[in-house]
Amino acid sequence: MSNNTVERLVKSAIIAALYAAVTFLLAPISYGPIQFRVSEIMVLLAFFDPFYIGGLTIGCFIANILGPNGLTDIIFGTLATFVSVYAISLTGKLAKDKKGSLIIASLWPTIFNGLIIGGMLTYLYKIPLLLSIGEVALGEFVVVTIVGVPIVKFVQNKYHNFPLFKRGNSY
Fold this sequence. Notes:
The protein is mainly α and 171 residues long. Helix content is 75%, strand content 0%.
């Protein structure tokens, strides 16, 4: 295994651990019918390198194992994150204009998590489906698009060589 591969695996493991730790540490706002999962900001890393899809998905899986919503969340929550980060990655791959495309990519978690997690929470908490979808979508939009995109752009502008925003050899 090359040093580059080992380095990328270590970065993905750190991303997984950070995602799970931040989610669990902020559990009161990370789980439940209304959620602002701050760790979701990290899903934007998949825009820059698809290699992070694995780390983000595993981090979500671990966070959902630790969370209060059981097997349903472990399966559907992890699926929602995987679908979202895969769509973000595809948007990054196909992007001609990286700046505008980051905003577009940030909307995938709003859509997919709103639908998948919203449906799951309706099942778990017996709340109206449209309300649940709207609450999850709003939380994702606030965390990923409103807060996450400016943070990513700030870090990119301030630290031009920030290693997490370097596209790997995955494509």
